[in-house]
Amino acid sequence: MNWGEFERANPELAALGRERFETRELCMLGTLRRGGWPRISPCELDFVGDELLLGMMWQSPKARDLLRDGRCVLHSCTADRNGTEGDFKLYGRARQVNHPETQEAYRAAVRARIDWEPSGAFHLFALAVESAGFVVFSPRAYGMAWDPENGMRRWEQRLE
């Protein structure tokens, strides 16, 4: 499902993810290298219409990973070692987007966000959401996870 479908199916969880991604303007992207080893790379993302889009430099290692195998994970960047701000993880598959209209909408979103836009060749991927999770570690730890097979699950635990 695309981001818009995920948002409509899971508004609470999607709102937590969107807020963390938009606040930081950066995520950590986990991909699979050719030999199967994981690669983690910082990546910017933008929400355009119903899509969560990832733009990448032409032929960058992470883009080549996704062209070969679209399975990936996005993790919100956290700055608090105690985990009180919460972190969001999104698992899915990236597909390359070659539609000129979507590429132009992506450029406009980047331009509006940071007053710059990609020029020349670049890779653009849309993420199909397969599962997601959110967790906070603090005196009151809690989390939630969603996937289509098991639906939404919640947990809470006191850490004292």
Structure summarized in a few sentences:
This protein is α+β, with helices and mostly antiparallel strands and 160 residues long. It has helices at 3-9, 11-24, 61-68, 100-114, and strands at 27-32, 38-43, 45-48, 51-57, 71-76, 87-96, 122-136, 140-147, 151-158. The protein has one domain (3-158): Pnp Oxidase, Chain A, CATH 2.30.110.10.
Give the percentage of residues in beta strands.
35-45%
Number of strands: 9
Roughly what percent helix? 25-40%
Q: What is the N-to-C succession of helices and strands?
A: HHEEEEHEEHEEE
CATH architectural category: Roll
Number of helices: 4
Low-confidence stretches: none
Estimate the mean pLDDT confidence: 95
**Overall 3D form:** globular
Q: Helix/strand/pairing class, anyone?
A: alpha+beta
How would you characterize this protein structure?
Helix content is 28%, strand content 44%. The chain has one domain (3-158): Roll (Pnp Oxidase, Chain A). It is globular and about 55 Å long. With 160 residues, the protein is α+β, with helices and mostly antiparallel strands. It has helices spanning 3-9, 11-24, 61-68, 100-114, and strands at residues 27-32, 38-43, 45-48, 51-57, 71-76, 87-96, 122-136, 140-147, 151-158. Strands 1, 2, 3, 4, 5, 6, 7, 8 and 9 form a nine-stranded antiparallel β-sheet that branches. It contains four helices and nine strands, in the order H-H-E-E-E-E-H-E-E-H-E-E-E.
